[in-house]
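User: I'm curious what two different proteins look like when written out as structure tokens. Can you demonstrate?

Assistant: Sure. I'll show them one after the other, since each token string lines up with its own sequence. Here's the first protein:
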Amino acid sequence: MKVKIVKPDTTLFEGDAKLVQLPGTNGLFAIMENHAPIISSLAAGRVRIVLPDDKEQTFDINAGVVKGQQNEVLILVQ
């Protein structure tokens, strides 16, 4: 699936991923390929991305929102 993490002034990540783990306001949750459409607010915490080669990247965020549909995940963060 395509994942993009954007701050107001820059793009932190843009690429393919197998899994995205996010700090939701009600706790951690993950989005995988073919996930149902989702929109959620995000709390301060760490976004974890598992790449297609099983390597991981993490990004610390203060807050944000995520929108996922049709194997495209857009994460807007502060």
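Here's a second, unrelated protein for contrast:
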Amino acid sequence: MTDAQATVSQLWIYPVKSCAGVMVPEATLTAQGLLNDRCWMVVDAQGELVSQRDVPHMALIQPSLRLSEVVLRAPGMLALHLALFEVQEPVKVQLWGQTMPAFDMGDVAAQWFSDFLGQTPEGKALGRLRLARFDPDHVRLSSTQWTGTVAAKNQFSDGYPYLVCSQASVEDLNARLAAQGHAAVDLRRFRPNIVLSGIPAHDEDHLRSLSWQAEEGQVVLQPVKPCSRCPMPNVDPDTAAVNPLLSDVLQSYRQDRRLDGAISFGMNAIATQGVSEDVEPVLRVGQVLDLQYLL
């Protein structure tokens, strides 16, 4: 049974966690999320995540994907080329209290990130940074509090393999900003993977499933958890300037009782059918999805 339909208007991949994203015309769904999404992560000398939360100008690091490599560019820096399948020394990294195996990407990448990022806006020196690649043999699962019996794998995402957002949700936010005399923002601030058009603002909050017929068979995604929002959307993706205005506006209408009043925007989703280690379907911009709503 189909309650409504939506169209995929944009697809985004974020190769290096907390750096800029890459908008793509199609994306392969793997058992751990979109192919090449959050494969790499910048860490400090203790192996802990370095993100835009503390270092906003990570937003200015722009990746591009090629056949066998990802190329990173940043203002004032020569391009850094990373082979997609290159691994070096095994290391341990930490993400949100979890310690997991990864692979260090070598001294050239470490120097590049150390030179560009340098210090926090408050002047705190970051020290020597490293770039780590997720160990694909490691199994990192989403919280079963939200996924139930489904073992949903991730790489270095915050906790779920897919983030779904509607274009109308961003347009609704911009209408509220305009009513207060503020400039519009774009959806890059919310870092979605799958952007939907053709549904009302925040209807993604109420979806039971999104499905489509791929060449390999039926694919079903299930939104499971509202995406709680830290201050990262306050970072301008073009300038890295930080303005708390966005959080203030969201606070006025997006407090989510499912998250004990925390701000939410977009829905974390998992694959419940048609995606596995052996079956990796492709989702394309323009694809029409069948929607089922929660009762």
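A detail about the second structure: DSSP finds four helices and 21 strands in the chain.
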